Amino acid sequence: MTGSAVYVYAVTDAGRSGELAAVPGVTGAPVRRITADGLTAVVSTVDGTEFGEEALRRNLEDLTWLEQVARAHHGVVGAVARQGPAAPLRLATVYFGDDNVRALLGEHRARFAAALDRIRGRAEWGVKAYGRPQADEPTVTAPGAGPGTNYLMRRRAERDRAARSLQAARDQAGRVHERLAGLAVASRVYPPQDPRLSGRRDEMVLNAAYLVPGGDGDAVRGLVDSCDAPALRLELTGPWAPYSFAGLDDT
After folding, report:
1. Residue 176, SS3?
2. Around 8, how many Cα atoms within 13 Å sit in the side-chain half-sphere?
3. pTM to 2 decimals?
4. Taking a C-beta distance cutoff of 8 angstroms, is the pair 192, 131 a contact?
């Protein structure tokens, strides 16, 4: 692709006029709006050479480039979501021109409208739970047994203790999730993150998102703070733009 292209961040209601001029888009490109069929797409004009199909394949493997684009993308979506409901599009969604973006809004109008209605007046909160190491139990030995036998017995006891601890953490995480899901309008559970991504050595046993009415943030915090889960370490984040619940795949 040569010339320019249109990078799409999110779709919102038409008629929104909040200021976006100070929000930097990907590669520093200005952010603007395209309106059609009662919807508005928040976009930037970008270099078609950098965001063409072949270039994107290469760039998406460049972690530095990817991080910069992802930060800018989420920054724009967050700014739009603070002004009202915003349905984010996937990272690096690019069209050839404004008319193609208008066609997107017309073709998927009902699905975008349903997504916006689903998240209107609501925010996303994230909860991660990690297994908390339990107190050591007395060392198991067999009187009269040799060093090798006692070593194997200790190793087996350690494995059994770790398995019991992990199961206790999973059971408690399930109860925490049930309480949070009861407070939320919708919830979504994701696979646990790899420790290299989470930055934690403890095993993640819950990775969930909750769609909550905008005024219920204190209730979410209070519920997490009150959870009696000795085998868990809980981590609450938010409120966020409701990425987990605003996608077209939910419709």
Report:
1. helix
2. 25
3. 0.73
4. no
The residue type found at 225 is: D
**Residue 205 or 157, more confident:** 205
Compute the radius of gyration of the chain from its Cα atoms. 24
What is the C-alpha to C-alpha distance for residues 100 and 94, in angstroms, rounded to an integer?
10
Q: Is 143 exposed, middle or buried (0-12, 13-18, 19+ CB in 10 A)?
A: exposed
Average pLDDT over residues 20-26: 89
List the one residue out of 127, 101, 124, 109 whose CA is nearest residue 190: 127
pLDDT at 132 over 80: no
Mean pLDDT of 26-52: 93
**Going by C-beta distance under 8 Å and a sequence separation of 6 or more, which residues neighbour residue 50?**
27, 59
Cα 167 from Cα 144, distance rounded (Å): 33
What type of residue sits at position 90? R
